[in-house]
UniProtKB/TrEMBL annotation:
Keywords: DNA-binding, Sigma factor, Transcription, Transcription regulation
All residue ranges annotated as the RNA polymerase sigma-70 region domain in the record: 32-97
UniProt-listed Pfam families: Sigma70_r2 (PF04542), Sigma70_r4_2 (PF08281)
Limits of the RNA polymerase sigma factor 70 region 4 type domain: 141-189
Name recorded for this polypeptide: RNA polymerase sigma factor
Organism the protein comes from: Microlunatus parietis
Subunit-structure text: Interacts transiently with the RNA polymerase catalytic core formed by RpoA, RpoB, RpoC and RpoZ (2 alpha, 1 beta, 1 beta' and 1 omega subunit) to form the RNA polymerase holoenzyme that can initiate transcription.
Family the UniProt entry places it in: Belongs to the sigma-70 factor family. ECF subfamily.
Source organism, top-level taxon: Bacteria
Keyword DNA-binding assigned: yes
Coiled-coil region(s): none
Length: 336
């Protein structure tokens, strides 16, 4: 279910106004905290970085408290908070010159070095908000959106992902309705170019459940790792595989052979880096494997990386690896 702006303010707004006027930070926090996960997901779509999204969600709550007197109940509390979060993200992006894709030197392929995975356990719990369209959280979508200028990105997310009316998006961004409509048209063209083979209708959510095809492929991927079976691993990769290891620059490749050759050249699957264990998991509503490596001087396998897979017809077409060490927010055990 797409979150639409059209919910009319009622008892929730009245309680919110009362909390704001009472200057009771505890009561105010209770009423805003219920929106944390959906706001954090919104910030993540804007920023592509989980840690930044956490920070900007907290900034949203701080701004909301400072601006509490401005809430008059003419819109839903959720809408008011989304407006604050959107503008907090835009302010953040205006100050950062390292939050744009970097050319990878390959045809039509840029590296989003700040991209981080989103743990599924942190998706919204509210049944009305938890039906997140899978396409709008998958890594390919998040990366495609990063190719939009920040304000155009905000328009696209507010209009096409959250389903807001043009007038509400225009008010949030201090633009005219005409400017919002024009920005949305340009954004759609860019996203279609970046996602040529993906479904582009986000008015209905896709299932959250992994298909049997995905489950089988990810299981075989883990088993091949644990056996150090390079032939078996290669057989799971489509020839035109797209691979990148983040946050390292210059790791993007667009063939399975180049990916495997790069892993071997980097020392993986060689003596000292050939004792693997793993856990099957999901991030960004996508199949993933948490890989653990035990080196000769260690007694336990330590969390090494998370491989996020896009599977089509039993083949891995995209593989995004993330350095997972020290990222407790992933909710993965540090050792096995």
């Amino acid at each position: 279910m797409i979150m639409t702006e059209g919910r009319q303010p009622g008892a929730d707004a009245a309680a919110f106004i009362a909390a704001a006027r009472s200057d009771d930070p505890t009561h105010f926090e209770i009423l805003t905290e219920r929106h944390r996960r959906e706001l954090q997901l919104h910030c993540y779509r804007m920023l592509a970085n989980y840690e930044d999204a956490q920070d900007l969600t907290q900034e949203t709550f701080l701004r909301a408290w400072r601006k509490r007197a401005s809430f008059q109940g003419r819109a839903a509390v959720r809408t008011w908070l989304y407006r604050i979060a959107t503008n907090a993200c835009l302010d953040f992006l205006e100050k950062r010159n390292d939050r744009t894709p970097v050319p990878a030197g390959l045809a039509n392929l840029d590296e989003v070095l700040y991209l981080q995975p989103y743990p599924d356990r942190m998706l919204p719990e509210d049944p009305q908000e938890s039906a997140v369209a899978r396409e709008t959280i998958e890594l390919a979508f998040i990366v495609a959106v990063q190719h939009l200028p920040p304000r155009q990105r905000a328009v696209f997310i507010l209009r096409d992902v959250l389903g807001w009316p043009a007038a509400t998006a225009a008010e949030t961004l201090e633009l005219t309705v005409g400017s919002v409509t024009s920005a949305l048209q340009r954004a759609r063209v860019t996203v279609r170019e970046r996602l040529p083979d993906r479904r582009l209708d986000w008015s209905r959510p896709a299932t959250h459940e992994l298909s049997e095809d995905e489950r089988s492929t990810v299981r075989r991927y883990l088993e091949a790792h644990q056996r150090n079976d390079l032939d078996g691993l290669t057989s799971l990769l489509r020839d035109d595989l797209r691979f990148v290891m983040l946050p390292e620059a210059g790791t993007s490749v667009i063939t399975a052979k180049d990916a495997v050759d790069g892993w071997v050249a980097g020392g993986l699957f060689q003596p000292g880096h050939d004792d693997w264990r793993g856990l099957i998991t999901t991030v960004n509503l996508m199949p993933a494997v948490a890989l653990y490596l035990r080196t000769p001087d260690e007694s336990r396998h330590r969390l090494f990386a998370v491989s996020v897979l896009h599977v089509v017809d039993g083949k891995i077409t995209e593989l995004t690896g993330f350095d997972a060490a020290g990222k407790s927010w992933l909710g993965l055990p540090a050792t096995l």
